[in-house]
Amino acid sequence: MVQPDQANADVIDLPDDVGDLFTRLYEDGMTDGLPVIPPTAERVAAMIAGGRLAREHVVAELAPRNGVASVEKIAVNAVMAGCLPAYFPVVLAAVEAMAQPQFNLLGVQTTTNPVAPFVLINGPVRRLIDVNCGAGALGPGWRANATIGRALRLIMLNIGGGIPGEVDKSMLGMPGKYSFCMGELEEENPWQPFHVERGFKPEDSTVTLISAQGTQSFAASFLQPESILMMLANGMTAYGTNSYTKGCGTPVVILPPSHAKIFHDAGWDKPRIRRWLFERTQVPLSEMPAEPRLLDTSSRFRIENGRLCICGKAEDIVIVVAGGPQLNHVTYLANFGADLATSRIQL
């Protein structure tokens, strides 16, 4: 049972100078190492107003600390990350998704794997708050993408207790642990948007969290579907990634609109692409080391006809459309080995 005082954020005195304030918060372990916006009472109140929920409302309890993620505490971190109040409904929904059991937040927070929540935004909210879905969608230069993703990292740190080097045991980490957020380019997607595939209405706005190990780009500048998939499958076939070793997870393929059009015009739908990739990314057990891993997960392998599968079933491969217009690259996100989680954004 959450006590009322647990839902309230602590009020502390901080230096007036922005540089001194950042140093103080950094020394107290409350930042990601980058400068933050001072979370004054006025800024936090304005952020809360963007979400239309009472400040004491508890959205979730976050592992591993089982920290109480109240609206007020989430707002503090959103302010620090640089979010605008208009972004706050997305942040609230993302926290709700993060706490869903199948996302395995405890594992994401404590593993030695360089995993981070990949945040995928769908629906009308993308245009309302100017989420980048096109060129550079996973790169710098877009406030909504950068700060929504960053807010989740600060929430995982300050509420969930994922302290790097102490609780977060990631051996090397990766840049996506700062921010890892984009929208789907639904306007140029020849198939159903991802959230509609998940059972939501086109007019719904959603946020989906997928535990991803980073990005890999493949120069699949071809005009035939099989050629594109051959290069993509070759790059995806890395049996050291967690979805192979755990026999589960949701690997992500991001197709730019030019590639998606090639598939669609040739009569390929997403299920056909998934089946092709699932079959062509299987690894013969004879090609794997005979020596068991120190962390032996072989009992969880997904094996078909003596071949190791990239995930549990073809339907688990996620396909979304985003990125620039050039017919140059497709992108792959290897999965940590957990299911994805989607929440509706309450606008």
Description:
The protein is an alpha+beta fold and 347 residues long. It is built from twelve helices and 13 strands. The chain has helices spanning 18-27, 41-49, 71-81, 88-98, 105-110, 125-128, 143-158, 194-197, 225-236, 242-246, 257-265, 270-280; strands at 58-62, 67-70, 116-122, 181-183, 206-212, 216-218, 252-255, 283-284, 303-304, 307-308, 318-321, 330-333, 341-344. A hairpin with a 4-residue loop joins strand 1 (58-62) and strand 2. The mean pLDDT is 95.
Strand order of the largest sheet: 4-3-5-13
Order of helices and strands: HHEEHHHEHHEHEEHHEHHEEEEEE
Shape: globular
> Count of DSSP E strands?
13
Q: Give the N-terminus to C-terminus distance in angstroms.
A: 28 Å
* Contiguous uncertain segments of 5+ residues: none
Biggest sheet architecture: 4 strands, mixed
What is the element layout, followed by pairings?
Blueprint lengths: L17 H10 L13 H9 L8 E5 L4 E4 H11 L6 H11 L6 H6 L5 E7 L2 H4 L14 H16 L22 E3 L10 H4 L8 E7 L3 E3 L6 H12 L5 H5 L5 E4 L1 H9 L4 H11 L2 E2 L18 E2 L2 E2 L9 E4 L8 E4 L7 E4 L3
Parallel strand pairs: 3-4, 7-11
Antiparallel strand pairs: 1-2, 3-5, 5-13, 6-12, 7-12, 8-10, 9-10
